Every structure is written in structure tokens, then in C-alpha cells.
């Protein structure tokens, strides 16, 4: 995929802003034109946060209109479901299975929408994984976002080295090797799924 509109969706505290920045920086290091934005104001209350990254040869705007997204990285399943309307038919949804239950579900006033997740698979290519478990297998449960970056890297035409360089720049030195291992685990997941 030479040009990609990527949406990253999750809830406050999941490291979405950093993940968005890392994708953009890796694209820049790979010599691509890149535009990005994110909305984080609700993150202080555990609310929805999202970012977009558009990469390609010539990008004019970071905005992704409804129905134009190529890849959706759902750091949380319900947020992936919420943002699925921004995706092209047949687009790719990378779904982290780790749930952050909203207040109405915790208060037993609503149910988590299990059936609707199956509907996503009818319209999109869905790569569903337990990123925390994959990160634990790589040596650090906190490296779940590196797993998600690896899955993305397995789908787009960007050198792995650009991502690894960005990981080295943004991850604490004591956790670099585990994050690189988690990133590579994500690439394996991506290649097995596509």
C-alpha cells in the first residue's frame, strides 16, 4: 500500500498519542510525505481519543473523511467499532482484544456489543489479537503498542528499520529490546493474517 489513511482509536491512557507520533516519524524517516493529527482532550476522563496519519508520495491533509480510511488500529475493541464508519469497504481493522469497559457497562446499565464485532468481519479484513499477551511473550507486557505497530508495518510499504529507529528514540533504554521483539511479533501476526 503506497498511500494509506490510518486511523488510530482508543481511550485515554493507552499511549495513542505516542503511537500516532511514532507512525508519522517512521513514515518521515522512510522518505514519505506524512500528515498527522490527533484529538486528546477527552483522554483526561478516560474518554475516546483518536489520531490520523496519512502517508504517501504527496499528502495535502491529515483528515480522513467517513468511508476513506484504509487501516484502523483499534487499541480498544469498542473504539474500533465506533470508528469503523470511517473505513472503506474492505479496509483493514487491526483490533486489540483488550477491553476497557465504559462506565455504563461497569454499572451494568448496558452490555458490551459482542454481536456487532462479528459484523465488522463481514465488511472489513479484521486482524484481531491480544496485543498484551503477545507483548508478554516478547518479554514486556507494556509493549502492546509495539505489537500493534508491528502489525501495521507488516501491511504497508515502509522499511522495518524506520520503525525500529523510532522505537529506539521513544522507548526507555531499559525496554528497547523487548519493544523491538514485540514489534517483530506484530509483523509475524500481520503476515500470518494477510
TrEMBL record:
What name goes with this protein? Answer: Indolepyruvate ferredoxin oxidoreductase beta subunit
- A Pfam family it matches: POR
Q: What EC number(s) does the entry state?
A: 1.2.7.8
Q: Which part of the chain is the Pyruvate/ketoisovalerate oxidoreductase catalytic domain?
A: 12-188
* Classification via SUPFAM superfamilies: Pyruvate-ferredoxin oxidoreductase, PFOR, domain III
Tell me if Oxidoreductase is a UniProt keyword of this record.
Answer: yes
Q: Which GO terms describe its molecular function?
A: indolepyruvate ferredoxin oxidoreductase activity
* Keywords tagged on the record: Oxidoreductase
Organism encoding this protein: Youngiibacter multivorans
Which InterPro entries does the record cross-reference, listed alphabetically? IorB_Oxidoreductase, Pyrv/ketoisovalerate_OxRed_cat, Pyrv_flavodox_OxRed_cen
Amino acid at each position: 500500500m503506497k498511500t494509506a489513511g490510518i486511523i488510530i482509536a482508543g481511550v485515554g491512557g493507552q499511549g495513542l498519542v505516542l503511537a500516532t507520533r511514532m507512525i508519522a516519524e517512521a513514515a518521515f524517516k522512510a522518505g514519505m510525505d506524512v500528515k498527522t493529527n490527533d484529538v486528546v482532550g477527552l483522554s483526561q476522563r478516560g474518554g475516546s481519543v483518536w489520531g490520523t496519519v496519512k502517508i504517501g508520495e504527496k499528502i495535502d491533509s491529515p483528515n480522513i473523511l467517513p468511508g476513506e480510511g484504509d487501516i484502523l488500529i483499534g487499541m480498544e475493541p469498542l473504539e474500533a467499532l465506533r470508528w469503523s464508519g470511517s473505513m472503506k469497504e474492505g479496509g483493514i481493522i487491526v483490533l486489540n482484544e483488550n477491553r476497557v469497559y465504559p462506565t455504563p457497562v461497569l454499572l451494568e446499565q448496558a452490555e458490551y456489543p459482542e454481536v456487532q464485532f462479528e459484523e465488522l468481519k463481514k465488511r472489513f479484513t479484521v486482524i484481531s489479537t491480544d496485543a498484551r499477551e503477545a507483548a508478554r511473550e516478547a518479554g514486556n507486557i507494556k509493549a502492546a503498542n509495539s505489537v500493534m505497530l508491528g502489525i501495521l508495518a507488516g501491511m504497508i510499504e515502509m522499511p522495518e528499520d524506520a520503525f525500529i529507529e523510532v522505537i529506539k528514540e521513544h522507548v526507555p533504554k531499559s525496554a528497547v529490546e523487548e519493544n523491538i521483539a514485540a514489534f517483530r511479533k506484530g509483523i509475524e501476526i500481520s503476515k500470518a493474517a494477510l
